[in-house]
Amino acid sequence: MRTLSNFIKGFRDVPSQLIAYTVIDAFFWSLIWLIEAPYLKSLGFTPFEFGLFGSISVASSIVTLPISGWIVDRFRLIHVMIVSLIASSGSILLMVTGVKILIYLSAFLGGFVGSIPFIGFRVLVSRVVREERYYYVYPYIDALDMVGNAIGSYAGWLPEIIVKTYGLSYLEVYRYTLLTTAMLSLLAIIPLIKIKIVETPRTSRSMKGFVESFKGIPRSTWRVIGKIMVFEALIGLGAAMSIHNISYYFMLKYGIESGELGTLYGTESLLMALLMMFMPKVSEFIGSPLKAFVLVSFTSIPPLVAITFVSNYLLAFTLYIARTVLMNVASPLFTAFMMAVVPPEHRGKASSIVDLSRSVPSAIGRGLGGYMLGIDLELPLRITAIIYTLSLTYLFLVFRSDKLSRTMKAI
Predict the structure, then answer these.
(1) Domain residue spans in the chain?
(2) Largest Cα–Cα distance in the chain?
(3) Are the C-beta atoms of residues 68 and 88 closer than 8 Å to each other?
(4) Distance CA 59, CA 68 (A)
C-alpha cells in the first residue's frame, strides 16, 4: 500500500498536460518505430542495410548532441521541442518515398533532430516537479511512456488486419501506416504548448556562450559525468549490435510481421509500466538507486543468452520480454540520480554529453551488428551479453565508494 501511495503522490506531482503529451507521443512514435523494420524488409533491405540505416541515424545525432543540451538549456524549452517534433515527423515523409537514398536521408534527418526532444523531455520533467520528488516522478513518467508504447505496439496488428481483409500488399499498407502515423504524431504538440515550466537562467546566445556554459559545469559534476560516459559507451555499443536490430533478428529467424512484433513490444512495455512503480521501493530496500539499477539490470543477462539457444518463437519472445523488462525497468532510478547530482542550469548539457558518449559506439554497433546478422544470427546477442556484464560490473565498482552515490540514499 505504501508503494501505491507513493506512486499516487507521483501522479499528483505531474501536470495533466505532461501526462497527455507523454502518452500521445509514445503511442505514435512506438508505432512508427515498430513499422520501420518490416517496411524496410518489404522493400528488400538486407540485414546490413537495415543496420546501416540505424548507423546513419545515430551518426547524425552525434552532430547535434554536443549542442542539443545547450539549446535546451539556453532557449525556451517548449518552443525547441515543438520545432524538433515537426522536423522528426517530416523525416518520415522521406522514408515513405521508397527511394533508398531518400530513406537514408530520412535516417540522417531523424537522428539529427531526434536527440533534442529526447533530452528536452528529461529536462522538462525536472522543471515542472520539485527536486525531492524526482525519485518517484521519473519512474511514474517512464511508466506512462511505457503505457503509450504498449498501445502503439499492439496497434502493429492493424497493418496485418488490413492486409488480410482487403488483400493489399504489406509494403503498401506499411507505407501508408507510416505516413498517417507521422502526421498524427503532431497532435502531441497540443498538450505540450499548455505545459507551464520554470525557465532557468540563460547564457549568451553566442558560440562563446556555448563554450563557456560547459566550462561552468562544476569539477565534481564532471567527475561523475566522466564515469557515466564510460558506462554509457559500453552499453550503447552492446545494445546497438543486437537489441537495436532485434526486429530483424526475429523476422529472419521466425518469419513474423508487425503484428507479432507489436505483441512482443506491447507486452514488455505494459510489464515495465507496472513494475516501474515498485522501483522506488526496491531502491529503498537495496540501499540506493544506483545499486538497485545495477543489480536489477544484471538479472537480464541470463535470459539474453538463453534466447540464442532456443528455436521456438514463443519461448524466445518470453525470454526477450524478461530480459528487456529487467534491463530497463530500473532505468528511471539512473535518470533520477543524474538529474539530482547535476545543477538545474547544466542538466541539458550533462544529458547531451552522456548521450554523445553512448551514440558514438552505437553508430558503429548498428552497422556491425547488421553485418554479423548476415553471418550468424546468434552472434550479436552473445557479444552483447559479454559487453553488458563488463559495463554493469564497471558501474558498480566505480560508484561503490563514491560520495555522490551515497548521497542518493536520502533522495
Answers:
(1) 11-410
(2) 63
(3) no
(4) 14
Is residue 71 scored above 90 in pLDDT?
no
Question: Do the Cβ atoms of 212 and 203 come closer than 8 Å?
Answer: yes
Which amino acid does the sequence have at 266? G
Distance, in Å, from the CA atom of 259 to the CA atom of 157, rounded to the nearest integer, reads 4
Q: Which residue has the cell 515495465?
A: 272
- Which superfamily, per CATH, for 11-410? MFS general substrate transporter like domains (1.20.1250.20)
Model pTM score: 0.81
Q: Which residue has the cell 515537426?
A: 86
Non-local (6+) Cβ contacts of 85 within 8 A are 25, 117, 185, 186, 188, 189, 192
Residue 203 — very low, low, confident or very high, per pLDDT cuts 50/70/90? very low
Q: How far apart are the first and last CA of the chain?
A: 20
Ordered alpha helix ranges (H), 309-402: 313-328, 331-341, 347-373, 379-399
Helix (H) or strand (E) holding 73: helix 47-74
DSSP codes joined into one string, 286-336: HSSHHHHHHHHHHTTHHHHHHHTT---HHHHHHHHHHHHHHHHTTHHHHHH
What are the tens digits of pLDDT across the range 262-302? 999 999 999 988 887 787 788 778 877 778 888 999 999 99
Cα 335 vs. chain centroid, distance in angstroms? 12
Q: Are 117 and 84 in contact (CB under 8 A)?
A: yes
Confidence of residue 9 (pLDDT cuts 50, 70, 90): low
List the grid coordinates of 121. 523531455
Whole-angstrom distance, CA of residue 255 vs CA of residue 377: 13
CA–CA dist 119, 123 (Å, integer): 7
